[in-house]
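User: quick one, fold this
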Amino acid sequence: MKEKEAPTGFHGVNLILLLTIFCSILLFPFHAKAVQAPLVLIGGGKEDFMPKSWSESTFKFIVEKANHGKILVLSCTDELDSIPSYFIHLGAESAELLKIPDRPFADDPETYKAIEKADGLFIVDREILAQINNWRGTRTESAIRNHFASGKIIGGSGTGAQILAEVKAFRKDKDLTPPEAIRSPSAIPFSFQTDFLPLIPRVLVETHFTRMGGLPIILIKIAQWKLNSPSKDFFGIGIDEKTALVIDENLNAKVLGEGTVTFVAAASSSTIRLDPRLPPIFSEVTCDVLTEGFVYNVSERRVVTVPPTAVQGAAFPGGGTYRPILIDGSNDSSATLGDFEIFNHNRDSLALQLGILDERPGEQAIWGTVIMSSGFSHQDYYENRLGEQRNFYSSSDD
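Assistant:
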């Protein structure tokens, strides 16, 4: 079947990062080298071992690309045997856990040999600084790089996916929260690391994306990098839990699973302000939020395949009379100004997953929008508030 080409004419508005975040689509040249083997990046979340689940298709893909051979599961801590057992259940000849807890073990020749013999690797979701500090510059890193260079598949979940991208950004004291990203983004700057397992060129990956309110965080990371290294370009990929991004050798990245994958980048004309005395500003940001079946080319930064269930959004009608409108992020009445208003989002922290969120017609004062106030006021409701906006605009035949 011939791949369906992406439609043209995406629409959006400029981004000013205050309490509400919007994105506009801008395309600009970017070319990265192809990768040497397929990669599977999972946004975290507990595996669902039921048939026809999100994890079955994702983990089975890894097994198939490993030619149903031996899969080695890498971790820096003790693990249960559920993931190796799952790979065997899905058709792997064998699968086992290799715990690499410190630098002496990581630099042991026997560790190198164990990784060398594997047909596929999978890195679990654990502390990213432990993975970087214990494995960087050791035989373990060399073995993973050689495995990749030989064309063998590598998968990772959570931090195991993050470390496969060229750019890693972290803070040693504590993780950045969405409210901190909005109110004091430069108070504790990020440390950037680019020489450990840079398998996906010029990319930074964030996982647990919607549940943790990751959009302002990934924007601040990109903004800090761009201010400090304006000549070195990279962009961000945010992956939801129970969602995977499968990247082939030509940097075509296909979305699988239950959530979305968000691609975010600065433009050459972006305006950035990270003043600790003022709210941050980051304008002219590209943002594509994609669901299962979409394919995005990481080198060209564009959607290259659209699933048949996708529906092109309506074009802005133009004309009409306009008036000044104030959107107050701390006032729930602002949520009525869009085309539709989402409600029940404060009823239960799992409202989105339980399917109990609902919408009703809004005032349509601002065309083509769904407005969610207090977006980052309570961590338990990040997923409801951000995820429902995502789901509302993800049309299908259902």
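User: anything notable?
Assistant: The radius of gyration is 21 Å.
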